[in-house]
Amino acid sequence: MQLKVEISVVMSVYNSEQWLKDSISSILNQTFRNFEFIIINDGSTDKSEYIIKSFANKDERVKFLNQSNSGLTKSLNNAISISTGKYIARIDADDISLPDRLKKQYEILESSNNIGLCYTNFFEIDHLGKKIRKNIITNKFDLIKNNLSKGINNIAHSSVMFRKSVFDELNGYREKLKKSQDFDLWLRMTEVTTFSSAGDEPFVYIRRHKESITHNEFDIYLYISLLSFFARKNSLTDPLDLPFRDYNIFYNWANEYLISKKEIQKIQKRNQIITLLRSKNFRLENLVKLIVSVVFSKYSYIIIFEEIFGYTIYNQFFRDWRVKFNYA
Q: Where are the domains of the chain?
């Protein structure tokens, strides 16, 4: 008799042929064996479909679905809707899970019904697979909650395993969010459950490259997710629950508002500063250009000023939203 599946691993793939084999193999080679691996091919035009099929033909744990391009959020909801596991584990098509990842997270979630999500520390790697840095995430849930409420999401999407029952209770990822769907889900999960670290050991390699969805860029959906969180805390209408027509009015206002506050320029400059602080192997010419760009930009000094005085745009964004939409 076939064992009941304990874990459903879900992956959405869009034109990921370069790293897809390594990513799929890292799941199929886990020491924990009782799982299904649901892979959605989200309208890829490269060789991704062929690669996925080659694995599905050799390993019955792989469940492969083709769909027209719908984006990550809808693809993940589609995958989880057909899953049968008690727990959902995420992996992106360019990331790698180390062999004991599923085993460790399963043991932690099984240890207490009060834990709804388990995350891991991780290594960042470049497009060649070379380690860039080790990311250690706090194991204190209160600090995780506090960071999330300030717009700081240190939890890698590919590092999580969570209870499907909690996911279903929250109606899954919210499809109005093209990005930061994970950040929004973590915020909502903190309202109904607790999180746990998988311990000190990193269990995932997160790949950083220019095509990755988390590559340094302005993301309006992060701001919207946090505003939605503040709205719920204050018993106000969550803009992500609005009908599409009303949501689009809100979205357009939010986009214009954040542009007027120069958030795009500040994000770009903040990322330049971070790159400068982390720089080790830069060519001297490129390093000089980066230093000049940082030193002679007014946005660098705005960012430093905001850091010193603890200012964030998020609270002001929320206050101005209340006034604009008559929630004051």
A: 7-207, 220-324
